[in-house]
From TrEMBL:
Origin: domain of life: Eukaryota
Protein name: Active regulator of SIRT1
GO cellular component: nucleolus
Chief localisation class: nucleus
Location of the region described as Disordered in the Swiss-Prot/TrEMBL record: 1-54, 98-125
Length: 140
């Protein structure tokens, strides 16, 4: 049994006539001199209050505190959660989320993808090239 429980039990067992009186109604002193006397006089500590203890303090077990602060591995639960939902988001939504999470600086931006142009067939035919050779180089 703790000391605070004992004190509360003893307070309940006190006779009803000895109830605590509010400090303003204890004695009929009045005036500034009475206040000085009251300040100088040390009060005897009341049996119900102990200033050395913290009110409502609970003794904590070191083992319980260690278990509370011990890191917990959530890998298995997270993997089950991830594998459970096979919902795949739209490509546009994922791009939007990635764009919001990127920084604004140019170094944070991904390089722009340029579309490669496939070379189309030439406008000139083989006969046009032969004709050009004959005219330019004079080859028969």
């Amino acid at each position: 049994m703790s000391a605070s429980l004992l004190r509360r039990g003893l307070e309940l067992l006190e006779p009803p006539g000895r109830a605590k009186v509010p400090p303003g109604l204890q004695r009929g002193r009045a005036g500034p001199r009475a206040a000085d006397v009251a300040r100088r006089r040390k009060r005897a500590p009341e049996p119900g209050t102990n200033k050395a203890t913290v009110k409502g303090r609970v003794v904590k077990s070191a083992i319980e505190e260690y278990h509370k602060k011990k890191p917990v591995n959530h890998l298995r639960e997270n993997l089950q959660y991830m594998l459970k939902g096979l919902l795949v988001a739209d490509k546009a939504v994922t791009e939007q989320v990635l764009a919001q999470n990127r920084g604004r600086k140019s170094k944070d931006q991904p390089p722009e993808k340029t579309e490669k142009k496939n070379p189309k067939g030439t406008v000139f035919t083989e006969e046009d090239f032969r004709k050009f050779e004959r005219e330019y180089f004079g080859v028969p």
